[in-house]
Amino acid sequence: MWIMDRDTVCALSSAPGRGAIGVVRMSGPEAVKILSECFSHADKLEHARMVLGTLDAGDLRDRVLAVVFRAPDSYTGEDVAEVHCHGSPEIVNAVLRRFVSLGARYAEAGEFTRRAFEAGKLSLDEAEAVGDLINAQSAAAANAAYDGMRGALQRAVNGIYGKLLKIAGELTAALDYPEEDIEARTSAEALPLLRECESELDGLIKSYAAGEKVRDGVRVAIVGLPNAGKSSLLNRLLGSDRAIVTPNAGTTRDTVEGSYEYNGVLFTLVDTAGIRAASDEAEAEGVRRSERAAKTAHIVLRVIDLSAPVALPVDTNGIVLDVYNKTDIADSPDAGLGVSALTGDGTENLRKRIYDAAMGGKVSSGGVMITNARHYRLVLNAADELASAEEAFAADAVDLASAALGGALAALGNITGANATEDVLDDVFSRFCVGK
Ligand code: GDP
Questions:
Q1: Residues of the chain scoring pLDDT < 50
Q2: In 10 A of CB 66, how many CB atoms?
Q3: Could you tell which of 245, 304, 323, 325 is best to mutate to test the pocket of ligand 1, judged by most ligand atoms within 8 Å of the CB?
């Protein structure tokens, strides 16, 4: 069992491989004792203070910085000892072997964070945000994860949870002491609070449209006839010569990708082969890929060549932005989004328009944003249960409403981990790396 008989675990917490410094971490009741047995200045170790000394790893020795954190004031809530040694795999492995020979065992993936969760240092969603922060691919993703790690979602969910508990408590009382009309009265009293919860859940649900893009980035496909200027536009938006630009139609046979950040959000551009009847097999495959890229993109830039304006039909689930290219040789329509990929004119405005279209003004509004698919599913689930509860109230069926509220509470409790099952915890923490 996890909770009982805690042992002491150790792992490399910095990235594996060769580097200037490697951080080896140990957590558990024996952590300080084990470190003390192989560190030259054990007598100087005090809470949260770096000490320079020699670590005797048996096979080799290293000059290291060591630090201990005493329970409960540590990441895991247990005694923690860290050694910052030189970052060679030989040294790191020797240090780990030494700790293991003195009684520690190798930590499993995510075990430090799981221990922090089990010690009540972090809620489950906060622990997941730690993983999201490590995996963040853009500044916006890192900021969203940081907010999550600091409990933004947990507070929002707990607020709703508290209100639902209140309603559930009143319902239980109504069911326990049935009098005439009490069901109708309870329903009338519960409804406003229930609707408040529904509206808060709705806000969270809506935030995922932006949250998902903040986490994974936004896919932008560039489509249009050959020679419309798609490759030139991609290079402009990226600020590099990623795609090869030539005056021959049909040069871009395959898709070409590149990414840039705008307001911290990652945008991945896919320059697709000109959509037209392909002249050979390689080009036909390029056309197929471009159709797929357009279909699955969040945003499709339909590039229209102002010197020969034709707007192709686009099959996509995303938002189509018409981009009129070559404003250096012809004027774009008044309301149109004009650019010159050749001179760069209008590209900054285009970046902004792409951002606005993708995010719908939903980022940095200060509100809580869901970025995690597991949280999203559970919030949807809770909202479904509340809709059922509302129907039950309308029919004065207090027992059914009570059951639906229980379902909503269970879903919300699974987000913060208040009532998460062992399977859920195993699944969440197995996604972490070893050492986290
Ligand atoms: P693609 O086939 O749609 O990828 O088009 P390219 O980017 O390869 O461009 C086709 C031709 O149009 C090249 O000769 C480019 O130099 C030219 N071109 C692209 N953008 C502009 C523009 O804004 N103004 C002008 N005058 N020429 C452009």
A1: 1-4, 363-365
A2: 26
A3: 245
**How high is the pLDDT of residue 435?**
82
**Which of 222, 223, 227, 350 to mutate for ligand 1's pocket (most ligand atoms within 8 Å of CB)?**
227
**Which tokens hold the place of 416?**
């913060």
At 35-48, the pLDDT tens digits run: 999 999 999 999 99
pLDDT at 47: 97
3-state SS, 43-99, equals HHCCECCCEEEEEECCCCEEEEEEEEECCCCCCCCCCEEEEEEECCHHHHHHHHHHH
- Check pocket membership of 45 for ligand 1, CB cut-off 6 A: no
With CA atoms as reference, report the closest residue to 12 among 80, 89, 123.
Answer: 89
Annotate 386-399 with three-state secondary structure.
HHHHHHHHHCCCHH
Give me the helices (H) in 217-243, please.
230-238
Q: Read off φ and ψ for residue 241, nearest 5 degrees.
A: -100, 65
CA 321 to each of CA 13, 221, 299, 358: distance values in angstroms, whole numbers, following the listed order:
45, 10, 7, 11
Q: What is residue 101's predicted lDDT score, i.e. its pLDDT? A: 97
pLDDT tens, position by position, 169-178: 888 877 777 6
Question: Using CA positions, which residue lies closest to atom 9 of ligand 1?
Answer: 229
Copy the structure tokens of residue 329: 């040789």
Which ligand 1 atom sits nearest the alpha carbon of residue 251? 2
If you take atom 2 of ligand 1, which residue's CA is the nearest one? 227
Question: Does residue 340 line the site of ligand 1, with CB under 6 A?
Answer: yes
Q: Which residue in this structure is represented by tokens 């189509």?
A: 320
Alpha-carbon span 297 to 76, nearest angstrom: 41
DSSP codes joined into one string, 396-415 = T-HHHHHHHHHHHHHHHHHH
* pLDDT (0 to 100) of residue 36: 98
Determine the pLDDT at residue 364.
43
| C-alpha–C-alpha distance, residues 124 and 342, integer Å | 50
Residue 283 is predicted with a pLDDT of: 61
Ramachandran sector of residue 151 (left: φ over 0; alpha: ψ -120 to 50; beta: rest)? left
3-state helix, strand, coil in the chain (%, to 5): 45, 20, 35
pTM: predicted TM-score of the whole model, two decimal places: 0.80
Atom of ligand 1 nearest to the CA of 234: 7
Contact 328, 310 (CB under 8 A): no
